[in-house]
């Protein structure tokens, strides 16, 4: 009965998961069902009216997914979470709660290329207007604020170059503007950085990457920090105003410091539909149990590989915040003292052709468009993930034509270095 | 009592010991938070009394409305106040005239009045502010994690099977779980500004 706070590794194994009430199963069961029976008509009405806690239909919630949600909420220090089908789905669901057509949100220019596409094109068709700012120039966020600004979106460790974002500085801008700060914490995972401790109001993840960690399941999650007052200023009607979908319930008033997570579930997931399969939730949960072990090994390997590359004659430059000479090393020491992540870029003296040549010669590194797998991965962003951007935008987002991105896995580092050495060799 | 962050044992002790709850500001409108909480707590076996002068003569889920605390005519263990922070003090003053005194005064999510709380605590009444008893009950019984909420508890024991009308155990030995320090801090800053 003590109120002692368990450590991160204990939470990674236990948070949200208890032996199954009916069978006693210790591993979290996969509740592979679409729907759940009601006790009676009144129970059904209470569930649909949000008056009772419970399961209705897997598009709205599922017990396996709920374990995953509580686990990630606990790891991030949030009040609640909502799991969805992918990282991209998490971003749509979050912004749907915050923006009306014609509204704006400010996003860091250094983002995963898929997010840049989603914000520029798909969201534009919803009438949500992205305004770009430079995470290396905090004043550019301040300058971008207008009366229509509803949110600020950044990555903690930015894809592809592994640069570290000054979350606290940008959270100060968000607080002044009276808008929530959304942090995509995919590349750091809560093991390296807990954005809520630095002022984030909402954290999103692609669970597909380090949290799941084994390259086998798509997933995304939204974590509510419980820090933002949605009723101040009337800017967020999805949370502060009576909802016609639910006979006039006001979500913030009813659910307090986890109202945002509830809004994402009952207004976002319910109506947009990107539900996570319980099977994927199970795979990701299993992955999370070893997150602290894997993440440390990822970081240690990445540092060794980055050091090797920095000393190689064919390499023009290495962008890894864990190197003392790196531009982001100060921020890495502050925000990610355990390691600067495992995704970074380097550029080759031989330019575009040398990049293509390297990728084709590697034997252990897999050439594919993902990060955060146990396996080491390599890609040439300019011709793949960032190919839709024009040349200037490529360079600005850290994906110039001579740039190669690595996601360093948890193999033996000597083998990874040997593979790079042979591929760079001749 | 530190009203910024309550230890689980404090909340657990209250929810385990009180039997009767008078709810000030109980609403018969079935989308109001007070209605949700009233219905839920009644289903979990608490003896609920709705207080609302505008609905005297009517019933809430079979329980007759009472006009005010002074009209209760019977002792209650806990008073749960569904009023804004600015309307808390008069309710506390009225509660302090009851004989016997209630053991607990609970203020709903969003409601906080430190001066009123101090007054109640000075005569030995336990106070909870800016919390919902439904949410806390759901959290400590782990029923609420079905909504993805961080229950801040861990346990290797079987969870109860939540069924309607059943009193759930809040006593499973659980260690503390994930923290929500940022949210507690934000609530404190807000109450200091207002
Ligand atoms: C930082 C970051 N955010 C979001 C996403 C999108 O996630 P998903 O592929 O799960 O939709 C990715 C995927 O690469 C990513 O790297």
UniProtKB/TrEMBL annotation, chain A:
Pfam families: Cys_Met_Meta_PP (PF01053). Keywords: Pyridoxal phosphate, Transferase. It comes from the Bacteria. Its EC number is 2.5.1.49. InterPro entries: Cys/Met-Metab_PyrdxlP-dep_enz, Cys_met_metab_PP, OAc-hSer/O-AcSer_sulfhydrylase, PyrdxlP-dep_Trfase, PyrdxlP-dep_Trfase_major, PyrdxlP-dep_Trfase_small. Belongs to the trans-sulfuration enzymes family. This is O-acetylhomoserine aminocarboxypropyltransferase. It comes from Bradyrhizobium diversitatis. The lineage of its organism: Bacteria, Pseudomonadati, Pseudomonadota, Alphaproteobacteria, Hyphomicrobiales.
Automatic annotation (TrEMBL), chain B:
Residues 185-194 have a biased composition (Basic and acidic residues). InterPro entries: CoA-bd, NAD(P)-bd_dom_sf. Gene3D superfamilies: NAD(P)-binding Rossmann-like Domain. Residues 14-111 form the CoA-binding domain. It comes from the Bacteria. Residues 155-194 are annotated as: Disordered. PANTHER family: COA-BINDING DOMAIN-CONTAINING PROTEIN, CYTOPLASMIC PROTEIN-RELATED. This is CoA-binding protein. The lineage of its organism: Bacteria, Pseudomonadati, Pseudomonadota, Alphaproteobacteria, Hyphomicrobiales.
